[in-house]
UniProtKB/TrEMBL annotation:
It comes from the Bacteria. The keyword Ribosomal protein does not apply. The keyword Nucleotidyltransferase does not apply. InterPro entries: Beta-PGM-like, HAD-like_sf, HAD-SF_hydro_IA, HAD_sf, PGP-like_dom2. Gene3D superfamilies: HAD superfamily/HAD-like, Putative phosphatase, domain 2. SUPFAM superfamilies: HAD-like. Belongs to the HAD-like hydrolase superfamily. CbbY/CbbZ/Gph/YieH family. GO terms for molecular function: catalytic activity; metal ion binding. Keywords: Magnesium, Metal-binding. This is HAD family phosphatase. Its cofactor is Mg(2+).
Amino acid sequence: MTGLQEFAGVIFDFDGVLIDSEGIAYDAWVGAMGEAGERIGRQALMDAGNGLTNAMLLAWLRNEHGWTPHEGFGTDLNRRFVEAFGAEAVVPGAAETLQRLTQAGVPLALATNSGQEEMVFKLGRVGLSEVFADHAYNPSHVDGRAKPEPDLYRHAAEALGLQPQQCLVIEDSLVGVRAAVAAGCAVWGITVTHHDPSLAGELLQAGAARIVASHEELQAALGLRG
């Protein structure tokens, strides 16, 4: 039995799984904060913010550093991100994974902590809007209950006409893995956009059943490569 035969649908996280935009996003944060006179290192932001919403990251900055954004910060942050983000952000092999799953007739959904406007922008910029059609979801679809709450993955499964237990989630963050596990989904971790050697073990400890290092490895595990 191949991995794909075990699941009726696949739900993908977005950033770090299908697109590699987190570095771009944190560069925008560092630049916008630096403009306001606040110096926090890029790596510190990445370590704290992986998988979080912007609101969650702002809460961390307020609690840990006593920093509150100035008026216009959000506009500056968004401008910096939009200017830097391009179609090349698609993770190598991701488009092929989606194409092969679609050809196999597997229902697909997207579940991301990105805001609605940001999600729509990024899907359009990288050419993935039609892949997910009406099945791209974010916290606005579940009354703002972002990962690590399980609501987003439960909602995505229900929208596909499936039970969470029938779905495989592909995630790259501890926040996302915990959300998927709490929702009742099977979850595999993917580390393709990360360089921390400890991440794989942490994802397994959080509840991931399997770790793949690339989309090629994911395709093989799902029985999609010949």
